[in-house]
Design brief:
heterodimer; A: Rossmann fold; 5-stranded parallel β-sheet; 5 strands; B: Heat Shock Protein 90; 5-stranded mixed β-sheet; two-stranded antiparallel ribbon
């Protein structure tokens, strides 16, 4: 069973996403900010990270900067955010970043489709 | 007064600085001579002008930064509850164990549709706001227009299939369609035109996208065999929030902002957009963008 780490500070989003992922056959783990996620990844390995950007304590981009140094892992990352950064096209070409979806514009079904296609590669 | 040769030299120096400033280089630092002479006021004046221009740039950058923060915050605050509504409704509608009555499902679908319309409206309103604020943060890159069109058409293939609409793409092979522009804005423009073509198509219709490249321009033609635009309503098509009467009857979905946004982008690229349409027969939109 593939493992997915959800990094999301909004309780409702986190629960909805976890529920959908579990129903779709994935094992899910949750963190509410970048710091927690880093701590988790130092001990455990997952197949995919679903990453929110706007979070307190450590936001998604700060987390991304630190992930290689602190965890030594090259886990693929799918960004799920409600902001539309102007450099999305650049971001998705960076190492490990496999996609950028805007939550409000994407159905849960399409999120699963995207996750499946990322995990297939 | 210094000798003519020295005067010429100093004037040449000043003119060189002026030319650089005119070209946008404000890095020039003008040093005043130790002794005052007839040139001093000129040097002082030039220094003040450069200072003022530098100030203006700093102010503009600060204003843009504030606008950027506003738009990012506004987008985030608006989208958060909307996305939540969408996912919550999807979750409950997908949940078989919820045992919803047919009636309950219908009503929940209504709410779901409305939440999606709301999201589209928020997206379009944010775009319109940015356009009106003259806020363009995305940088220009050399993009392959044909490639962007191909990718956008691919994104719509499942929507087209649902209505049995055939998508025909007529793009010259082996030709580069490269142009310096903002990648995201161009995708959005094509997305809006194509989305309309498919949305207003009848079942089993055809949508054709043709690209033609001349030495100086790129021409696009997007045509559909859909509901068309009534003649008396055609002058309003690019107006904000306008949706033709038959369009509103055909589907509730639509913000009336898509074409306004497209035209604003195309104007910024120095191009133009126009259309021909016949009610019940379909519409053809033409876009012409200078290559540079």
């Amino acid at each position: 069973m593939k493992k997915i780490l959800i990094v999301e500070d909004d309780d409702d989003y986190r629960k909805l996403l976890a529920r959908k992922l579990n129903k779709s056959g994935y094992m899910t783990f949750s963190s509410t900010n970048g710091q927690e996620a880093l701590r988790f990844l130092k001990k455990k390995t997952v197949d995919l990270i679903v990453l929110d950007l706007i979070m307190k304590k450590m936001n998604g981009l700060e987390f991304y900067e630190k992930i290689e140094k602190e965890t030594n892992k090259e886990t693929p990352i799918l960004i799920l955010s409600n902001i539309q950064l102007s450099n999305i096209n650049e971001l998705v070409t960076k190492p490990q970043i496999e996609g950028y979806l805007i939550k409000a514009n994407t159905s849960l079904a399409k999120v699963i489709d995207k996750i499946e296609s990322v995990l297939l590669n | 007064m210094a000798n003519p040769h020295a005067i010429k030299k100093r004037l040449a120096g000043l003119i060189s600085v002026l030319n650089k400033v005119a070209g946008g280089d404000l890095s020039q630092n003008i040093r005043l001579a130790k002794t005052k002479d007839e040139f001093t006021p000129l040097y002082v004046g030039l220094r003040r002008v450069i200072e003022a221009m530098r100030h203006q740039i700093v102010r503009t950058e600060l204003i843009n930064k504030r606008k950027s923060q506003f738009f990012t915050t506004a987008a985030h605050e608006l989208r958060t509850p909307l996305g939540n509504m969408r996912w919550s409704l999807e979750t409950i509608l997908d949940d078989e164990s919820a045992n919803l009555s047919e009636n309950a499902k219908i009503i929940l679908y209504q709410a779901y549709d409305s939440s999606i319309r709301m999201t589209q409206l928020v997206n379009d309103l944010l775009t319109v706001s940015k356009l009106e604020e003259g806020y363009f943060v995305e940088g220009k890159k050399l993009i392959d227009i044909c490639d962007v069109i191909r990718k956008t058409v691919a994104l719509f293939s499942s929507d087209a299939k649902k209505k049995s609409v055939t998508l025909k793409l007529l793009i010259p092979k082996n030709k580069h369609c490269k142009r310096l522009m903002e990648p995201f804005f161009f995708s959005e423009a094509i997305n809006n035109i194509l989305s309309n073509a498919i949305k207003y198509s009848k079942m089993q219709g055809t949508v054709e996208i043709a690209v033609e490249k001349t030495r100086r321009t790129i021409k696009l033609r997007i045509s559909d065999t859909g509901i068309g635009i009534p003649k008396n309503e055609q002058p309003n098509i690019f107006t904000k929030f306008f949706r033709a009467t038959n369009a509103k009857k055909h589907t509730k979905q639509g913000t009336g902002l898509g074409l306004y946004i497209v035209r604003e982008y195309i104007k910024k690229w120095g191009g133009r957009i126009w259309f021909v349409s016949k009610i019940h027969k379909g519409s053809t939109f033409f876009v012409e963008i200078p290559l540079q």
